Amino acid sequence: LFIGLSLLLGEALFHEFRESGIDVIAISPGSTKTNFSDTARLDPKIKELPGRSSMQVVETSMKALGRRQSIVDGLSNSVFVFLNRFLPRFLPVKVYRQVYQKLSTKN
After folding, report:
1. How far, in Å, are 26, 30, 52, 79, 107 from residue 3 at the CA level?
2. CA pair distance 70, 25, nearest whole angstrom
3. How much is the pTM?
C-alpha cells in the first residue's frame, strides 16, 4: 500500500511542479544492494539475491529526472511490474509473502 501511495504522490507532485521548473520523480528501485538487510535483521542469504547497486539506481534516476514522472529501475524489476498488470492481485501478494517469510528471521 505504501509503495502505491508513494508512486501516486510522486506522480502528482511531478504534474503539480512541472510548470515551475521543479523536477520530481518517483523511483521504484526494486532489489538494491545496501546494508538494509542487516538493519532489518533479514536472513543473510538475501545478500546473495540479484540486485542493483545504489549507484546504478541513482544513475538511472538522474537520466530520467526532468523527463519522466516515475521509473522502475532494472530490467527484471521492469518485467515484474509489467507482469503484475496482468496477474490476479492475490498472486503477487502471495509471492511477496512467501519471499518475505523465507528471508525474515525470527525475533
Report:
1. 10, 11, 19, 17, 25
2. 5
3. 0.71
